Amino acid sequence: MQQTVLSVDARTDILETLRYFHYFRHPLYAEEIHKFLGKKVDKDTLTHTLSEMVSNNSIYTHRGMYSLADNESVYVKRLVGADVAKAKIADAKKSAAIISNFPFVKGICISGSLSKGYADENSDIDFFIITDADRLWICRSFLHIFKKLTFLVNKEHSFCMNYFIDESRMCLDEKNVFTATEIVTLLPIYNMDVYTAFQNENRDWVKDFFPNTITGTDTVGTVKDIRPLKKIFESIFNILFPRSLNRALMNLTDTLWRKKWSKKGYPMEDYDLAMKTKWYVSKHHPLNYQKKVLSNISVAS
Questions:
Q1: Which domain holds residue 64?
Q2: Element (H, E) at 187
């Protein structure tokens, strides 16, 4: 009797979880549904409830995955994308090895669709970067000068560094299902200690969204810490009024981004969410997926 009650309670949460990923046409395995479920549920109860919901045509299953879509092409797409992702991970390790040698890079994680085990031939390799305290904008400026050069060899899509955070303030401002999903799917690839510290800073509020999740269990291995020149450059910049330089680069970037945002006719009230430019965070998401996804969930609910 107790299992039946729990099974009924779990249905709404299962639908909400699948609805979120349905936006991306991304079916989930049972263990992933458990990971992203908004309610504390044991795996046996989840398995029982999934079986019930499939029998009732509330959800669909193909190839061991579950979705709101009864279209096998969606499931095949994910399987093909998983194979492409494996090759992209190898490229991501090479890119991360290069990024790790830049001044004030403290930690690197793979983010975006690749961190969720999916990619296609046109997918970018996205990185989430943690920097030394009060050096974020110096670090970011170095890396984006480098990225400009990657256009010359058609490698710009292998270095999409769109989110930087300062190690002295690693708890995210936005606390919602979108940011929680991004956090628990990050794949650490450089400096596990910093990644663990980041997860610890955000664990309490992330648990409110995903109580079944144990963070820090997914990894693709880490790149070696070989950085002789890095220390030299850091030492030089650490004596050149680094905090003032850091703030100046932040203000310059913010001014340039706001002009571009305005020229494209985007609503200025969305700027601070999509393009965060604060001393402790740099987020460059001009397509503002966070707003689109959360709005879609709200409408669907």
A1: 2-70
A2: strand 187-190
